[in-house]
Amino acid sequence: MVRSPLSIIFSLITTVLMIVVVIVIVTSVLAFTGGPDPCTKGGTVPIETSDAQAAAFDAKWDQLDAALAAGAPLSITLTESEITSRANGFLRDKGGDVADIRVCIYSGSGAATGEVDLPVGSAKFKATGTVDLTGAHPVAEFDDIEVGSVPGAVIAPFESVVEDAIQELLDDIGLTHTYTVELQAGQAVISGTP
């Protein structure tokens, strides 16, 4: 049986569309199944999430800003527990597309794991990189992002969802001074000059 050119083109388009639909479905399933484990602590102390740790973060940050406002340079050291606790408190108060954050700090870089809302549910993620505190708002500088069990070849759309969700939250944080960040195993040293 001889097929018309229109029939062949229609069959090709239908086949391509079916393949695209299957890829989208498989990728979506991978995004919502499994995923990266919580990041491993960079320091020797277990990461504890509590209101007391968040309060310690706030007290140190207030001390830093007060010294800078008075014209004195100062550095503070924030632990993984303090940063994780403050981040979760911020998320609880602010809301957003990110939840259950755990921050781990290594020498020269950090990692955050948690859950991010996607258009049809939430997925586990892990983002590694650094943060820039020299502008009006913190800016995340990502080195790598993992979402669910999505393979690297098709992760780009999911990476942008995580990047956007994190940066949207950071945009709500106003910085009153210019700070530098030194990431060490288990802690971040934040320095400021008036």
Describe the protein's architecture and organization.
The structure is a single chain. The chain is of the alpha+beta class and 194 residues long. It has one domain. The chain is 40% helix and 30% strand. It contains four helices and seven strands; from the N terminus they run H-H-E-H-E-E-E-E-H-E-E. The strands form two sheets. A four-stranded antiparallel β-sheet has the order 2-3-4-5. Strand 4 (121-132) and strand 5 (139-147) form a beta hairpin. The longest helix is centred in the N-terminal third of the chain and has 28 residues, at 5-32. The chain is elongated and about 85 Å long. The model has no long low-confidence stretch (mean pLDDT 86).
User: What is the string of helix and strand elements?
Assistant: HHEHEEEEHEE
Number of helical regions: 4
**Rg estimate, integer Å:** 22 Å
Number of domains: 1
Per the principal axes of the C-alpha atoms, what is the gross shape?
elongated
Largest sheet descriptor: 4 strands, antiparallel
Approximately how much helix is present in the residues?
A: 40-55%
Poorly predicted runs are none
How much is the average pLDDT? 86
Indicate the proportion of strand residues. 25-35%
Helix/sheet category: alpha+beta
Question: What's the total count of β strands?
Answer: 7
Distance between the termini: 83 Å
Strand order of the largest sheet: 2-3-4-5
